[in-house]
Design brief:
Low-confidence stretches: none
Radius of gyration: 19 Å
Strand order of the largest sheet: 1-2-3-6-7-8-9-10
Number of strands: 10
Mean pLDDT: 93
CATH topology: TIM Barrel
CATH superfamily: NADP-dependent oxidoreductase domain
Helix content: 25-40%
């Protein structure tokens, strides 16, 4: 049994919700899991409680609200009433209040004028803030796949979240990286409050990881570190985050990711890579 390490959060997006991955995570020192109201066809919370109700007290648990079932389809909404109902159902299905509740991809519903979008985001954030105050969750945050619209809206009297989860890694574009950093700075969120997700662009088995050499971004990487491990460790610097939510049902894969934590990034090469991304996007240098 390893000591707890907060830098990895076991993500359950495509998980089969098997007990063995939960027990393996705990053995490896991973005691945080992340899921969502809409995962597994809106059954993720029930499935998680079914396979691991006795284990859940040992985990810090985060989840998300924002997507809803609608006539056999899935729709997104920032309606405060629907968000509150989903959070109440989340508590019932899990048999406990989550430690952290994320507003899930709010950019999906930020349509119309900037004023209307800002109002919608503000009311949704206020709903999560109120839910935390009422004990429906320990804290609240925002999880955004595409945070680019958010910095211009998160101004004025907008409630300040406790955490921000954003897409990161070598396959995230410079616009996404810089929007994430700008948003975190506006809210005064420290590194420990900024989470990364999808460090492999959603495809850990993509042939790209056999062609790209992410080891150039890692110090002293010539002692058996795999490309996948190097890509994962580099993702902590793109953008700079304190933890990353990453999904797997394979305990061996999870162990590889834990083992990668002992390496550090070559920050000079990471900065060079970011500058290349800026140049490719036609942006001015730093």
């Amino acid at each position: 049994m390893r000591e707890s390490d907060p830098r990895i959060v076991l993500g359950l997006h495509r998980s089969r919700y098997e007990r063995r991955i939960l027990t393996s995570a705990l053995e490896l020192g991973i005691d945080a899991i992340d899921t969502s109201f809409n995962y597994r066809g809106f059954s993720a919370h029930v499935a998680l409680a079914d396979v691991g109700s006795d284990l859940l007290p040992r985990f810090t648990l985060s989840t998300k609200v924002g997507f809803f079932p609608a006539d056999g389809q899935v729709e997104h909404s920032l309606d405060p009433g629907r968000l509150r109902e989903a959070m109440e159902q989340t508590n019932r299905d899990l048999g406990r209040a989550p430690d952290l509740m994320f507003l899930h991809n709010p950019e999906r519903s930020l349509t119309g004028s900037p004023d209307a979008a800002q109002d919608a985001l503000g009311m949704a954030c206020a709903a999560l803030e109120a839910a935390a105050a009422a004990g429906l969750c320990g804290a609240w945050g925002i999880s955004s796949w595409d945070p680019r619209p958010l910095p211009e809206l998160a101004v004025g009297t907008m409630p300040r979240p406790d955490a921000l989860m954003v897409r990161g890694g070598l396959l995230a574009g410079i616009d996404v990286l810089e929007a994430s950093e700008s948003l975190a700075a506006q809210w005064g969120l420290g590194e420990g409050q900024l989470w990364g997700m999808s460090p492999f662009g959603g495809k850990a088995i993509d042939p790209l990881w056999g062609e790209l050499d992410p080891q150039v971004f890692i110090q002293d990487s010539d002692d058996g570190l795999s490309s996948l491990q190097a890509a994962f460790r580099t993702a902590f610097w793109l953008p700079r985050v304190g933890r990353i939510a990453v999904g797997t049902d394979n305990p061996s894969h999870l162990r590889e990711l834990v083992d990668a934590l002992r390496y550090e990034a070559d920050t000079r090469n990471v900065r060079t890579y970011r500058q290349l991304l800026r140049e490719r996007a036609g942006r001015q240098p730093f």
